[in-house]
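Q: My labmate handed me this sequence with no annotations at all. I'd like to see what the chain might look like in three dimensions before we decide whether it's worth expressing. Could you predict it?
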Amino acid sequence: MIIKNILSAIQVSLAPQLLTIKRFFNFNKNSSKQETEPEYIYLWHASKHKFSAIDFTKIGAHSIKFGYGIYFSRDKQCAIDHATGAKYLYRVDLLKKDFENLLKLEQPIFKQPPNIHNVAKKLSSYEPLASRNPILEASGHSLYKAACSASGGNLTGIQYEKLGVDLLIKNGIFGAILKDHEEIIVLYDPTLCIIRACESLEASHENSRCTQSL
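A: Here is what I predict for the chain of 214 residues:
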């Protein structure tokens, strides 16, 4: 009985320290779990049409000013501003590592990830990369044009650019980033354009009108 009482007293006196140790191990366990979970970047695309999947055959129905692909923004309002008569807002989740490996159209290639350096070197025999010395000083936009030249042949227009994008995808470049007042993300690969959420902008406008009338 005496030993039992002594052990109980020790347990009580050490309770705060034991709790701290327990919290420490739980914290580390949770931290490790968070580190292994993939991080995503939310991308937004607005449209006046309602759909359940993004259709790449519709590319070219409007402008392809920034190249072949589906246009997104990390900012909801920017996505809405780039779509005439937008009624729906769609969300695509892009892995952070994939986002970081996108082609930066306005940056010199030497500032971009190594996989982009390798693609530029492969396509260095095509204009406009061949006119640059060294090759890596050329911009991401030059690499895009070189891919089109390498695969598009005598084609023009959207098919010319589609073949260029297909070549980029085969070489591990799945999209691009452009800053034109607002950041625009162009995704080339349909497998990255999986809709994860859809918001009705009409409902938002309706709620806004109701709030203003109160």
